[in-house]
Amino acid sequence: MHSRIAGTGRYLPERVLTNDELALNVATSDEWIRTRTGIRQRHIAANGELTSDLALAAARRALDAASLSVAELDLIIVATTTPDVVFPSTACILQAKLGARGGPAFDVQAVCSGFVYALAIADRMITGGLAKNALVVGAEIYSRILDWSDRGTCVLFGDGAGAVVLVPSERAGIMSAHLHADGHYKDILCVPGTVDRGAVTGTPFVHMDGHAVFKFAVKVLAEVAHEALTANRKTTADIDWLIPHQANIRIMDATAKKLELPLDRVISTVGAHANTSAASIPLALDVAVRDGRIREGQYLMLVGVGGGFTWGSVFVRW
Ligand code: ACO
């Protein structure tokens, strides 16, 4: 028994914030942002729009694409760092909004690696007989945890959601998953604040050491892709599409270079939506599925890295 992805979907909030618009309020420029990151614009959730709303729109599209009804779903996992509330989980809120009930629903908190973690868990739950049809969503509203006066971070992130439906399969769709973390790097990318007796303590905004993050990300993304290739007895030449966490075009290019993979086999959507953390891989996946680049039988290497630090890969046969 294996699992495979039967459908994908994505949702980006209507409001687009361009680099030029951002430069009206903070000392930056379109040229600086584009050349350092590849980002052209980001989407911003409307007031009152919640992470579960973004997740719901992406989930409905993935369910449609998979021709699966809500009643057939028996597992919902949401990867998010920006949940609607402290609890219940965004997955439970999404379950209610979808009109599903009964099956397990929970959030995964692995920051930008969250989708890869969640997909690995859903695969093991299906192959282990704990679930049949799973909805796996990455959804984030980073615009609410950014200090919009800090040009070092606010230019990098955006809001969005991506989703997949995972179903049982006789042939392997999910070929392997490799997950890692090293909490010793917890301080180089974090939101160090919390809620304490009714007040926010610490800093409730993204804090980042950009240089350290860059170096760490490139190293582990290439390593974990190699780990997956070795486990599957494949080489870089077998990867049809590398779908990395969409943080920054330079991180993606450097990872591809380390893997000796041509850049035209890297799916890159970061320019259109910036870094959407746990949503970025399923967003990029959905774009490439719907524009026809991803075709049956191809091999996809999904690689994520994020705060924690966490990182991981899922190797997929489409
Ligand atoms: N606009 C204009 N100037 C800026 C901006 C900005 N938005 N941000 C920083 N600068 C300035 C700095 O103040 C500095 O000025 P100075 O020389 O006068 O001190 C100058 O630009 C160069 O700063 P650096 O930090 O050296 O710029 P660098 O070329 O390294 O790029 C960046 C910074 C883009 C953050 C880079 O380090 C990077 O890509 N890091 C990875 C971070 C990342 O992608 N994070 C996403 C989250 S991580 C994840 O998802 C896993």
Structure description:
By secondary structure, the protein is an alpha+beta fold. The chain has 2 domains: 2-171, Peroxisomal Thiolase, Chain A, domain 1 (3-Layer(aba) Sandwich); 175-317, Thiolase/Chalcone synthase (Peroxisomal Thiolase, Chain A, domain 1). The protein is built from 10 helices and 15 strands. The strands form 5 sheets. The chain has a 5-stranded mixed beta sheet with strand order 1-7-6-4-5, with helices on both faces. A 4-stranded mixed beta sheet has the order 8-15-14-13, with helices on both faces. Strands 2-3 form a two-stranded antiparallel sheet. The longest helix is centred in the C-terminal third of the chain and has 22 residues, at 210-231. It binds acetyl coenzyme *A (ACO).
Instruction: Tell me how many strands there are.
Output: 15
Helical region count?
10
State the major sheet. 5 strands, mixed
- Let me know the CATH homologous superfamily of the largest domain: Thiolase/Chalcone synthase
The CATH C-level class name of the largest domain = Alpha Beta
Kindly provide the radius of gyration, computed on alpha-carbon positions and rounded to a whole number of angstroms.
18 Å
Instruction: List SSEs in N-to-C order.
Output: EEHHEHEHEHEHEEEEEEHEHHHEE
Share of residues in helices: 25-40%
Stated plainly, the CATH topology of the largest domain is called: Peroxisomal Thiolase, Chain A, domain 1
Strand order of the largest sheet: 1-7-6-4-5
